[in-house]
Amino acid sequence: MASTETNGPMILCDGLVKIYKVQDLEIVALQGLDLMVDRGEFMAIIGPSGSGKSSLMNILGGLDRPSAGKTIVDGQDLLKLSSFALTRYRRQKVGFLWQQPSRNLIPYLSVEENVELPMIVAGMSYKERKDWTRELLEAVGLWDRRHHDLPRLSGGEQQRTAIGVALSNKPVLLLADEPTGEVDTATAETILNTLRFLNREYNLTIVTVTHDTRLSDQVDRVVTIRDGRTSSERVRRLRAAVVEEAGEMVAEDNGETAAEEHEVSYHEYAVLDYAGRLQIPRDYLEEMGISDRAQIELTEAGILITPATGLDNASAQAARVSQVSEQWGPQRRPADLKLRLSDASRGLRKLFGKEKE
Ligand code: ADP
Ligand code: MG
Q: What pLDDT is recorded for position 254?
């Protein structure tokens, strides 16, 4: 899984915009998303439904095109690729893992045949194909079951076969959209262990969308997307000193010992975009009673954000604009307008002396 570019991050999204046009409607799925993923990182993307996670994955996977902004993967700017180059990118650079393993698999072929098929299509030589198939099937723990038909496999085994298929083209990047979305805890665990093994063994960059905390608790970094933008990120930290003291540096190939699990801590960061904009979690704002305006002060400890006080009349009024406009939302306007029209016509009728009082 060699990459052509060895410098720079694996993924760089700078102001990525995705707009879907459906008849006359424009749906903005991504509105200036910034994201950087290092080579060899294993990271997760979380966020509410409809926040743009799948749109992002489809763009990174070359299945869909960005509308604007920069999206560079392994040194290639996806916005600028021709259709031909984008197809080649999709075939050579990325592997895709879906929620339903069936999307990667052909049911009447054996495990081995499924993994080998994309290599045949790609024109890989016999020897390279056989070697890589064996290595992959050993990596996902299915070498012993290589002759099995898919219907005889468990859900976890099918998803591991799908991982083998996703990696058959030796991609530099594995994209997974909710890979543990439909499985029980034990299966989720084996999928996670397989991904983690591949990440460590091959330094494979993995980006996974998930709402599964069993998965997001185990990756290097978790980025939250809200309304088509990156809003916060959580970074996993290993307190190495403590681990060393415990004298239990963990063996690489099998899972973690309890000691390592306990030395992991997370740190939550807010993400700044290129213009210096910051999304503050809604519950923090509510807790502080901040709605439209806030005060920002530079203090010794950092930047302090407090509710706005001492607004003069003009700015106090400005601050209330969005509140008022909310109350005057579209549903209220017709009634309001009718009222005002009837007022006005009453006024006119009065003027022309037609109103009976
Ligand atoms: P998520 O994966 O986080 O649930 P999506 O990326 O699927 O979010 O969707 C983001 C927004 O874009 C949603 O409003 C969704 O309805 C819209 N959307 C996604 N795909 C399409 C499409 N092919 N055509 C039109 N709108 C789409
Ligand atoms: Mg989705």
A: 43
* Shortest-distance atom of ligand 1 to CA 55: 6
Q: How many angstroms is it from 147 CA to the middle of ligand 1?
A: 39
Q: Please, where are the H alpha helices in 182-257?
A: 185-202, 213-216, 240-245
**Nearest ligand by distance to the CA of 56:** 1
CB atoms within 10 A of CB 298: 8
Where does 11-270 sit in CATH, by number? 3.40.50.300
Residue nearest to atom 21 of ligand 1 (CA): 20
Give the chain's residues under pLDDT 50: 240-261, 329-339, 355-357
Predicted pLDDT of residue 72: 96
Near ion ligand 2, which residues have CB within 5 Å? 53-54
Residue 136: how many other CB atoms lie within 10 Å: 24
Q: List residues bridging with 149 in a β-sheet.
A: 110
Calpha distance 53→210 (Å, rounded): 9
Three-class SS string for 236-274?
EEECHHHHHHCCCCCCCCCCCCHHHHHCEEEEEEECECC
pLDDT in tens, 31-40: 999 999 999 9
Q: Which residues pair with 270 in a beta bridge?
A: 232
Give the Å distance between the CA of 108 and the centre of ligand 2. Answer: 28
Question: Closest Cα to atom 1, ligand 1: which residue?
Answer: 50
